[in-house]
Write a structure and sequence with these properties.
about 180 residues, 9 helices, mainly alpha, two-stranded parallel sheet, globular
Length: about 180
């Protein structure tokens, strides 16, 4: 998923439902896609398919009504990441690492109101004080600004200059 694709989507909606295959690669793609979408200010929901399913075969075998039921139960980034990472670690015995990973995603959210809602959700889920989550967020954001974030590390793509376009046109006319 590219920033350009997200900007195109944002013309029509701010809500994006990610539906990838139920395997590890699909889950990882959901995490990557969610972070990019969060950076761009989108509301992200992740739909988890039953193990062994992919979106097209699920719809073909179960039908659109059951697919819409799954969409209705989509998780936000806090719920999805907490659940996924707890399953991967085998238990919730490592909540610190799970929380840090979620905070890393929340640090990409620019909207303070959205951050507040996510922090409340995270605090409730793990029985934490919101202040401690905000402290971690502040540390993450300051380290991102110090070292630069991943998305702004490269130069932004530029449109070809008018001079280059004219040169291309002239070259084409010479070849004809």
């Amino acid at each position: 998923m590219t920033v350009e694709q997200i900007q195109y989507i944002s013309r029509y909606t701010q809500n994006v439902y990610l539906v990838y295959d139920a395997d590890t690669a699909g889950q990882d793609a959901s995490l990557r896609g969610a972070d990019i979408l969060l950076e761009q200010g989108m509301n992200v929901y992740i739909v988890e398919l039953p193990q062994g399913e992919d979106p097209d075969t699920f719809v073909l075998s179960k039908g659109s009504e059951e697919f819409m039921t799954l969409i209705g139960g989509a998780a936000n980034i806090v719920e999805f990441k907490a659940s996924l990472l707890a399953r991967r670690s085998g238990s919730s015995s490592a909540p610190g690492a799970i929380i840090q990973s979620i905070v890393e995603s929340l640090a990409k959210v620019g909207d303070a109101i959205k951050v507040n809602l996510y922090v409340k959700d995270l605090a409730d889920k793990f029985g934490l004080r919101e202040e401690s989550i905000y402290q971690e967020l502040k540390k993450r954001k300051s380290s991102q600004s110090r070292y630069g974030s991943d998305s702004s590390s490269g130069p932004s793509p530029k449109l070809p200059s008018l001079r280059l376009a004219i040169a291309d046109r002239d070259l084409i006319s010479l070849l004809m």
